[in-house]
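REQUEST ID: PR-0412
SUBMITTED BY: lab tech R.K.
PRIORITY: routine
TASK: structure prediction, single protein chain
INPUT:
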Amino acid sequence: STEIYDMAFHGNFLYLSLSDTGPTLTEIVRVDLTANTLTTEEVVTFATISSPIAFLGNNLYLVTSGLLKIDVTTENFDVEVVTSSLPQDHTSGDFTAFAFHGNVLYMASFMFITSNNGVHRVDVTAENPVYEKIVESGDVKGIAVSGNSLYFDREANRIQRIQDVSGGTLNGANLVTSGIDNIGHIAVHNNYL
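STATUS: complete
OUTPUT:
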C-alpha cells in the first residue's frame, strides 16, 4: 500500500509524492483537478525512501541520492541532477519539508539517527550548488517561507522565525513556545501561520 508523503500544486495539477509502506519506493503522480474524472498519472518512480517535493517554475524538486529536478512540461518528464550529493550525514529519508525563497531551496531535516538535523539551503541555479546549514541542531519537520521570513518548528512545542533569510543574521526567534505537539507541516497564508 502507499501513503501520501507530500503534495505540491502546479497549474491545474496536484502533484503527490507517494511512498510504499516499506518505505523503499517514491512515486510521483499527478492529478488534473479540472478533469471530469480525477485519476492519477505517473510522473516518475524512484527506488528510494520518501521525498518532500517543491516547485520552482516548471521544475519539481525532490531528493534521492542527490537533489533532482523534473521538468513537468516535457512529454517524458525529463529528470536532471542538480547535485549528486546531499548535506553531510544525510540520506533522502532525512528530509521532511521543502520551501523555496527565490532560487534558494530550504530543506528541513528530522531523523532519529543523525545529530545533523536542522535546516539546510541550496541555490538550485548555481553552477556548483553547495548546501549551507542555517538552523543548527534540533529536529525540524515543517518549514514555510513568507516574504523574506522563514518559519520552522524546533522539536516539540516551538515555532521559530528567521526574520530575513536574505540578511546577515540567521538566528531564529521563538514565536510559539507551547500548546503545539508533533508538528507535521507548516503553511503561511496572508498573516496566518
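NOTES: DSSP finds no helices and 16 strands in the chain.
REVIEWED BY: pending
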